[in-house]
Amino acid sequence: MAVVTSRRGRRTAAPYAFLAPAVLLFSLFILLPVGYTAYLSLRKVQVKGLGLGRGARSEVFAGLENYQRAIADSQLWSGALRVLLYGLLLLPIMLGLALLFALLLDRPRVGLRRFSRISIFMPYAVPAVIASMLWGFLYLPAMSPLNYVLDKLGLPEPNLLSPGSVLFSIVNIAVWGGVGFNMIILYTSLRAISPEIYESARIDGCSELQIALRIKIPLLIPAIVMTTVFSLIVTVQVFSEPLTVRSLTTSVTSTWTPLMKVYRDAFAADDLYSAAATSILLAAITLVLSFGFLRFVQRRAFGEDR
Amino acid sequence: MTSTPARRPRPAFLPTAILLIGAVYCLLPVAWVVAASTKAGSTLFTSFTFAPSGSFFDNMGDLSDYGGGIYWRWMINTALYAGLGAALSAGLSGLSGYTLAKYRFTGRSVIFNVLLAGVLVPGIVLAIPQYLMLAKVGLTNTYWSVLLPSIVSPYGIYLARIYAAAAVPDTVVEAARVDGASEFRIFRTVALPMMVPGMITVFLVQFVAIWNNFLLPFIMLADDKKFPVTLGLYTLLNRGATEPALYSLVITGALLSMIPLVAVFLALQRYWRVDLLSGAVKA
User: Would you put residue A190 in left (φ > 0), alpha (ψ -120 to 50) or beta?
Assistant: First the structure.
């Protein structure tokens, strides 16, 4: 190893010593588990004879068998399609509202700006499980104010937790939980733009809408890409919301999303090996989807590294 | 807004109205839980759901009595997991981020890129093997099983590096070095004070992340005395399917669990740097 910028020995040792705790914990709790999952995904249990007695069950190499089974599993596919639909609804609605609110907050002449900003951001401080409980109770036909009002008006009452509507109800929980955080990210990016850019546009007679569409949104593209990819990573792993809503309705099955299936396979069905294969597949999809992001972050924030 | 241009004194109607609708949407479930927590369990299903009643202190008493006061134990556990975990995480991220930003050494970009890739690893790939590995050393179902995996945060290190690069001038580090300060002393007495707003931001982000991480305690813990409040309330909700009386405990418990985090945010909001999260930091 080359001695880099130092004149004294302790300066070359210092960065390694400072990074040692992080590298150790990172290896133990991130690298090693990833490797272990990959290893498990290639293993299976072989049962000899009747599978009774000691040594009758042993772990052997399985090749890609677990992956083949995972890909052929219709439960996993219907869960994946459900999450795809969930993401196609969630990402545009959540990020669209976040962008709209951020642009409105950044506009001149807006009343109660601080109140709106803090109120919309507040759900960020509510864990997904708690948020799902609050909304879940609001969806319960026996407790929902919506059903109460419709009942008093003599109108038909919807069941927001029925198999046909529960997906949309869960999208709403995620929109509620995520819109404020993304709004703050976009709003802060807008505040970092020099206001002089808009001044000349205003003098030229541009409306606030035109400034938003033609100047602000194009300048926000990097922040929009970043919030999209972060939201995408979270979306693929949706777990807490459907699991909590499941306590209130039978419309959500135990394999409703791929992550719920992984959990069930690993801990309820005791099939660690297919759970491992499924989670590697999920991770691969997430990595493919977010690879563009990594390149983006490196170029934007750490241009000096190249 | 404090200074409104004299020519346009009135706020624009439509933007203000849209933002207020957004605010009402976000406050709606909270308003409901405040109203519902004042109702006796028997009226939960029969009275108009936004109409308050007078049973809040009864509900709180029931909640405190439940399981010998286990709810408060869950709250203390949550404070421990999220508070201690986030503090350790912010410290570790600060030291690592400072090192990655301020030293030039062999392997720097390799280490940084591997850490950054960690941001993209989905939690589930980690949860199962973390459980198996901690089971091998007998640490599952302990406080450590939730605390230890929460300390290292690739995202926190990434944020701390950006902040250190912007907030700590090379010349100051160099001057302290010329004065003969040790490398760790430079970090602790020179760099760290300059990084405080960035560290508060990392602390809050990690605090929310740990508080919000349901999967980890769900997998690791079996003993309800060690549960964080999210997991505890989830088990109550699950049992509520057969014992609806528990629903009013869940509602009161959910409301009380939201207060500390909202309070922490409001208390720290002037110190934390959101621009760090959007990558637009100018220290």
Answer: alpha
Q: The tokens of A256 are what?
A: 């409703």
Q: What is the pLDDT of residue A304?
A: 43
Residues of B within 8 A of A275 (CB-CB) are 128
Positive/negative CA dihedral, A285, A291, A297, A298: positive
Give the ipTM of the model, two decimals please: 0.88
Q: What gap in Å lies between CA A182 and CA B277, rounded to an integer?
A: 10
Whether residue A223 contacts residue A189, with contact meaning beta carbons closer than 8 Å, is answered with: yes
Res. B134: pLDDT tops 90:
yes
Quote the tokens at residue A173: 């929980």
**Tokens, residue A184:** 């703050």
What are phi and psi for residue A46, nearest 5 degrees? -105, 130
Q: Which residues contact A82 (CB under 8 A, 6 or more apart)?
A: A167, A256, A257
Burial class (CB in 10 A: 0-12, 13-18, 19+), B6: exposed
Amino acid at A252: V
**CA A166 – CA A85 distance, rounded (Å):** 12
**Distance separating alpha carbons of residues B131 and B149, to the nearest angstrom:** 10
Contact B40, A134 (CB under 8 A): no
Distance CA B163, CA B280 (A): 10
Q: What is the CA radius of gyration of chain B?
A: 23
Contact residues, B window 256-275, toward A, CB-based 8 Å cutoff: 257-258, 261-262, 264-265, 274-275
The minimal CB distance from B105 to the residues A4, A122, A290 is found for A4
pLDDT digits (tens, 9 = 90+) for B258-278: 988 888 887 877 777 777 777
DSSP E strands, A132-195: none
Give the containing element (helix H, strand E) for A286: helix A272-301
CB atoms within 10 A of CB B46: 10
Q: Which domains does chain A have, with CATH numbers?
A: 73-305 (1.10.3720.10)
- Residue of chain A whose Cα is closest to the Cα of B283: A192
Helix (H) or strand (E) holding A85: helix A74-106
Domain range summary for chain B, segments of one domain joined by +: 12-38+47-54, 63-277
- What sign does the CA torsion over B247, A175, B116, A70 have? positive
The count of CB pairs under 8 A between chains A and B is: 295
Interchain CB contact of B198 with A (< 8 Å): no
Q: What sign results for the dihedral spanned by CA atoms A213, A214, A219, A222? A: positive
In the CATH hierarchy, which top-level class contains the domain B63-277? Answer: mainly alpha
Long-range CB contacts for residues B188-195, cutoff 8 Å, separation at least 24: B191/B98, B191/B102, B191/B164, B192/B94, B192/B98, B194/B167, B194/B168, B194/B283, B195/B94, B195/B98, B195/B160, B195/B163, B195/B164, B195/B167, B195/B168
- Looking at chain A, which residue has its C-alpha nearest residue B126? A33
Report pLDDT digits (tens) over B165-190: 999 999 999 999 999 899 999 999 99
